[in-house]
Write a structure and sequence with these properties.
The chain is mainly alpha-helical and 150 residues long. It folds into two domains: 78 residues, Cytochrome C biogenesis protein (Helicase, Ruva Protein, domain 3); 34 residues. It has six helices and no strands. Helix 2 crosses helix 3 and helix 3 runs antiparallel to helix 4. The chain is rod-shaped and about 105 Å long. The N and C termini lie far apart (99 Å).
Length: 150
Amino acid sequence: MKWLSILFIFWTLPAFAVQPNEVLSDPKLEERARDLSQGLRCLVCRNENIDDSNAELARDLRLLVRERLVEGDTDEEVLDFVVSRYGEYVLLNPTKGGSNAILYYAGPGMLLLALLIGGLYLRTRARATPEGSNSLSDDETKRLKQIMGE
């Protein structure tokens, strides 16, 4: 029974998809490749980085990143190349500029707009005179008594 629990523990550990034949011989380049791969999304698995994915496209992306690093590209050049090829969706943490700025700033902007409109509404409600507070003039009071038959 003990071996079953040990097997279960190893079975639940994350399986990393980087194959031994993909690993670079230079440890510094391999570390850079791993860092870059952590920020790239597998386009098949969605919210999984390419290091953790077993998909064929993720493998191709891992190889592409390593190939570009071996050619001497900087980290930014590698990311720019991958984004130009697959689009900004490939980044797990998209940039905050360009068209993404709308997504980042629309929520807080709408909240501020709602607070402004709510504040203006409450301010105008506070200034409004209540309906029952209008008192009758002396002439209106006399006329009312006359109508009521007093």
